[in-house]
């Protein structure tokens, strides 16, 4: 009789323990998922920074920025805007402008790396770069 | 020798549960704190890089304008913000995040300019100071 009473108490305790563990797991799992999302976002941001800097440096040393963009796989969207899709949720936009100065040509570019965050695009980094090519003066 | 039976007494499951939940809580907290610190460093790095590139782009624009002013001229009246340092023209570019870029160009006989110096100075001010 005593054995049966102990078994019932133990069963009840284990059931309560499992229920409590389920509730705690729900809260704790949320924390782990938040940490994982944050880590993934930081990783994307650092990758974006490296990609943006590499592209900016290539454009800075290039005599033909348009050809450099085409070589890197960019597609021209309009007169000044170029776009490269890294994957389905991340892409690079480059706005390239050429300005004729008094004594040369100034190439200005704005590199923006975006990714989809839910439905809306999120800007990871925007780098502005300019390169002046001195020309001949009469 | 008397054989001892193994029994899980009342309270053992609760004790085990408390240990597991506390361990998971500590691990979760550490993961969150780690990610939070990483996010701060990443955001700070991004802000510095963006500011540096903005400063370099502004310096290149200044150089282009200055080259246009000086090309083909024997004497050059410098605009505000520029100064002569021997045969060099020097100026500073400050970007949004207090990044200061020190620039210097040399001027040849025909009035054409060439980059001489392009260096960041004192960009770790209060904006990026470690708390």
| Envelope shape of chain B | rod-shaped
Greatest contact between two chains:
A-B, 43 and 43 residues
Structural class of chain B: alpha+beta
Q: What percentage of the residues of chain B does DSSP assign to strands (E)?
A: 15-25%
Biggest beta sheet attributes of chain A: 5 strands, antiparallel
**What is the total tally of β strands of chain B?**
4
Mean pLDDT of chain A, rounded to whole units?
89
Radius of gyration of chain A (CA) equals: 28 Å
Q: Helical region count of chain B?
A: 1
What's the helical proportion of residues of chain B? 40-55%
Which residues of chain B form runs of ≥5 with pLDDT under 50? Answer: 126-131
Distance between the termini of chain A: 113 Å
Which H/E pattern describes the elements of chain B?
Answer: HEEEE
Spans of chain A of at least 5 consecutive residues whose pLDDT stays below 50 are none
Radius of gyration of chain B: 31 Å
């Amino acid at each position: 009789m005593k054995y049966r009473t102990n078994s019932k108490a133990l069963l009840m305790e284990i059931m309560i323990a499992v229920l409590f563990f389920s509730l705690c797991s729900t809260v704790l799992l949320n924390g782990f998922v938040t940490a994982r999302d944050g880590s993934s976002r930081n990783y994307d941001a650092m990758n974006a920074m490296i990609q943006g800097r590499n592209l900016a440096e290539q454009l800075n040393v290039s005599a033909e920025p348009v050809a450099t963009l085409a070589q890197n796989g960019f597609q021209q969207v309009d007169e000044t805007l170029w776009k490269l899709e890294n994957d389905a949720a991340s892409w690079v936009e480059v706005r390239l402008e050429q300005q004729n100065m008094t004594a040369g040509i100034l190439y200005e570019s704005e590199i923006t790396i975006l990714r989809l965050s839910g439905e809306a695009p999120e800007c990871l980094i925007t780098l502005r770069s300019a390169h002046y090519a001195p020309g001949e003066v009469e | 020798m008397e054989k001892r039976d193994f029994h899980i007494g009342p309270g053992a499951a609760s004790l085990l549960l408390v240990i597991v939940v506390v361990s998971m809580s500590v691990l979760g907290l550490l993961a969150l704190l780690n990610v939070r610190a990483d996010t701060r460093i990443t955001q700070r790095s991004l802000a510095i890089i963006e500011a540096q590139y903005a400063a370099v782009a502004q310096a290149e624009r200044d150089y282009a304008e200055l080259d246009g002013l000086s090309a083909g001229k024997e004497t050059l009246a410098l605009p505000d913000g520029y100064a002569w340092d021997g045969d060099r023209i020097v100026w500073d570019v400050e970007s949004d995040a207090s990044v200061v870029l020190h620039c210097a160009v040399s001027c040849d006989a025909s009035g054409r300019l060439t980059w001489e110096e392009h260096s960041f100075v004192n960009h770790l001010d209060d904006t990026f100071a470690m708390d």
